[in-house]
Amino acid sequence: MKRIFQDIWAYRYFILSSIKTQFRARFARSKLGGLWMIFHPLAQVLIYALVLSAVLKAKLPGIDSQYAYAIYLMAGLVGWTLFIEITSRLLTVFIDNGNLIQKMSFPKLSLPLIIVGSALINFFLLFIAMIVVFAFLGHINSLTLLWIPMLVVMTIALGVGVGLVLGVLNVFIRDVGQVMTIVFQFWFWLTPVIYAPSMLPDEYRHFLSWNPMTGIIEGYHSVLVYNKSPDLSQLIYPMIVSAIMLILALFLYRKSNREMADLL
After folding, report:
1. How do residues 103-151 score in pLDDT, each as one tens digit?
2. For residue 53, is it within any domain?
3. What total number of domains does the chain contain?
4. What is the domain extent for residue 92?
5. pTM for the predicted model, two decimal places
6. CA 129 vs CA 8, 117, 192: distances in Å
7. Residue 46 belongs to some domain of the structure
């Protein structure tokens, strides 16, 4: 374990430069550049809000705003977007970088760090844009925003844990990548991003408690929508799942490190 962190520290400049390169390459020859990272999720929010808010706004108590549903959507999507970007990119991180892994000698775990760094930049830009939109809509957030860094760390931990486990398995069983594309779609709808848990019938609501993203997304809603501290009891389960997945990911990586290079 100590050797892994030493190797990553030795390649810190490679990691930082790769994050910068990815950011620049993503929007090369684009007039609007990084603004596209803001426009895409905001457009998604606008579509959901226009289609569904007229039906669901009466079921969002505690939000004193005519734009209640749009606010609720943005708060949930900002956390989900960070999680799904990390998880989905880690799913294919070793396969996508197979040529690089074969040609260069460097710690493979630096690749997930590059993805996390890139995702954090995207999150930061989207988060700032969201706060500006909230202010424009008359929804002002308080000092409860200080809880956001903790929620971000938990989102990253769960995303990295799940993504790395899937990424290692995907090298050996390529069907994993195909299956997870479908699973991610179901996972989104089984997470209270665009609906409140109270909207579900009582007999189905308990299923949400098995989803580790439920407590995290509810934390974002508490802070960003209701200006309250997150319910820490809801975050215990996601913390446990994140720790288990991170340990499992490191175990699988250490066991299959050499074999992966041969298969790639």
Report:
1. 666 667 788 888 999 899 889 888 888 888 888 777 888 889 999 999 9
2. no
3. 1
4. 68-263
5. 0.85
6. 32, 19, 22
7. no
